[in-house]
Amino acid sequence: QVQLVESGGGLVQTGGSLRLSCAASGLTFGAYRMGWYRQAPGKERELVAAITSGGSTNYADSVKGRFTIARDNAKNTVYLQMNSLKPEDTAVYYCGASGPMRSIPNYWGQGTQVTVSS
């Protein structure tokens, strides 16, 4: 059974930092492209950052230069370092695992709330 478990969310002031973690189990982690997505109230879920099995990364324009995605294949874990947080970053953040040729994740975590106060 595949499980993706996010942690690290919370309440932070504008300009602060958080580090999200997503621990995966039940899948061949190194074979999956891992992504962080977020969904704010009343909005669609959007891709924030992704990292391929080979380590290539891509980011949403809104977070470039502030967020960094990384993975540790030995620990089956993907991270999202979020710096210079803004109120508009407030959302539920989800971890997703996408198999080959998949644009939408095969598997999702349960989400972790990030709230940035102004």
Task: Please summarize what this structure is.
With 118 residues, the protein is an all-beta fold. The chain contains no helices and 11 strands. The protein is globular and about 40 Å long.
For the secondary structure, the number of strands is 11
List the helices and strands in order: EEEEEEEEEEE
Compute the CA-based radius of gyration.
Answer: 13 Å
- Which bin fits the share of residues in helices? under 10%
Overall form? globular
Query: How many angstroms does the end-to-end distance come to?
Result: 40 Å
Sheet with most strands: 7 strands, mixed
**Oligomerization state:** single chain
% residues in beta strands: over 45%
Number of helices: 0
Mean pLDDT: 97
Q: Can you tell me the residue ranges where pLDDT is under 50 for at least 5 consecutive residues? A: none
Structural class computed from helices and strand pairing: mainly beta
Give an overview of the whole structure.
With 118 residues, this protein is an all-beta fold. It is built from no helices and eleven strands. The strands form two sheets. Strands 2, 4, 5, 6, 9, 10 and 11 form a seven-stranded mixed β-sheet that branches. The protein has a four-stranded antiparallel β-sheet with strand order 1-3-8-7, with no helix packed on it. The radius of gyration is 13 Å and the shape is globular.
